[in-house]
Amino acid sequence: MDRKAVVLLSGGLDSTTVLAIAQRQGFSVYALSFDYGQNHKIELESAKVVANRYGAVQHVVAMVDLRSFGGSALTTDQPIPKNRSAEAIGRGIPATYVPARNTVFLSLALAWAETLAITDIFLGVNALDYSGYPDCRPEFIQAFENMANLGTKIGIEGIKQIKIHTPLILMTKKEIIEAGLALGVDYGITTTCYAPSSSGKACGECDACFLRLKGFAEAGIVDPAKYVSI
């Protein structure tokens, strides 16, 4: 029986690891990325490379204009927080939070999955080494999964229940990197930075870069990504 899964793919470290995990579990991957008006649109180029490199059956880049709402440093001219400590990153919800982003993304992933008769959706959220986003918590994922099974034709009539897979949710960034390397992930083709240079190099100072570099350092491995000042 052919096992298929929709995998949300940003082109970053976490989502690329999740794609590899889904494939290792025997799923054929249908990758879904979003052009949502993000300033760091370079991540979409990485998503295309990742999807091609690892043999996604199909890769869709959906257009969702969250920039029209604003409310985040990722979709406006608001400054990206930089050079924050681990303690500061762990407190509160940062300016890079995009209102309801994962709710929107998962809803569209659910819609595509239903058209493909797919009941498995993979998402690279993490509730340990992360920036305090409320839509990365296990409680949110469980609530969305419950809604998905209540509000879709496939959920009501299907033989299988819809499942939202979050294999990284209780892993540290170090553990995520080690798991990905064990699966042969090339992190040099991933993009994590919120404020990359015009050439695509990571800033090395935003929260996303801090957490990524911290994970590689704890794993005792040099990050293969290109940085402006490292």
Give the helices and strands, then pairings.
Blueprint: E1 4-8, H1 13-24, E2 28-35, H2 42-53, E3 58-63, H3 86-89, H4 101-115, E4 120-122, H5 138-150, H6 153-157, E5 163-165, H7 173-182, H8 207-219
Helix pairs in contact: 1-7, 7-8
Question: Which key phrases capture this entry?
Answer:
230 residues; alpha/beta; Rossmann fold; five-stranded parallel beta sheet; 8 helices
Model description:
- The structure is a single chain.
- The protein is of the alpha/beta class and 230 residues long.
- The protein has a single domain (4-219), classed as HUPs (Rossmann fold), CATH 3.40.50.
- It has eight helices and five strands; from the N terminus they run βαβαβααβααβαα.
- It has helices spanning 13-24, 42-53, 86-89, 101-115, 138-150, 153-157, 173-182, 207-219, and strands at residues 4-8, 28-35, 58-63, 120-122, 163-165.
- It has a five-stranded parallel sheet with strand order 3-2-1-4-5, with helices on both faces.
- α1 (13-24) packs across α7 and α7 packs across α8.
- It starts with a strand and ends in an 11-residue tail after the last helix.
- The mean pLDDT is 94.
